[in-house]
Design brief:
The protein has about 280 residues and is an alpha/beta fold. It is about 45% helix and about 15% strand. Strands 1-2-3-4-5-7-10 form a seven-stranded mixed sheet, with helices on both faces. A three-stranded mixed sheet has the order 6-8-9. The longest helix has 21 residues.
Amino acid sequence: MSDRTCIASYGKTGQVVVDQLDGGDGLIIVTMNNPQEFNVLSGDFMAAIAEAFDGITALRHSNPNNDEVRAIVFRAEGKAFTVGLDIGRLNEYLEGGLTPDRDPFRAMWECPFPIIGAINGPAVTGGFELALCCDVLLACESAVFLDNHAKYGVHPGRRMSQRLAEVCGMNNAKFATMAAYPIDAQLAFNWGLVQQVYANAQELDRGANDIARLMSKNHPVMVKRYKDLLERGGLSSYAEGIALEESSEATYYDDLVDVTATLADGAEKFRDMVRWVEER
């Protein structure tokens, strides 16, 4: 695509591609690019995804004010986001294991930058689990989420049973998992699983990039702090989450390079917001 520059590729045949969106906004695009096999999650393919996200995490600056990466869009080429693991080869997966360095779920959980999942088609089982590692989910009308663990007779992992209930509610999670019910884009939106639905894959890509740009214009330290607070709070009780927020607030302003400049920028953005209200 002409609006981006390839900065890395992973896998034996470059099946996972990392691009930087042109324009200097710090936007990174990670693309699963094995459309002939519907981005099936082989061991090597999962390792390539892990390498891609670990490579992006390695770009983190020691001073969070100076991070050049601002947001990541995670997308796929072809008809499917990913159809997950080939269950016919499950023994190979179980015998080989998923070591930490080859684990894409771990790599996405550890990534400090916001990840926008652009779901272009079926996200099945392991693909559904990958989608749930994203911070924001967008979908086009051909997207569908399907958890087949119960159908295949294999146990879920990668936080699936807990994360799905947290995101879309206990009974919806039970319905989706125990019935292996396909959740189309509109139902996913109604459940709060996805935040926006687009007419087609092209509009989905544009929408994902636009939302990534919105994130890139916000304060880089606060965006990463929010992600960390929300994620850690989701794994805690309400009271523990409040304590996390208070602890984070106590150190936040000390971490800023220039508090005066930050507040001046915030004041200008406040005036922009007031003008936006006036024009409505």
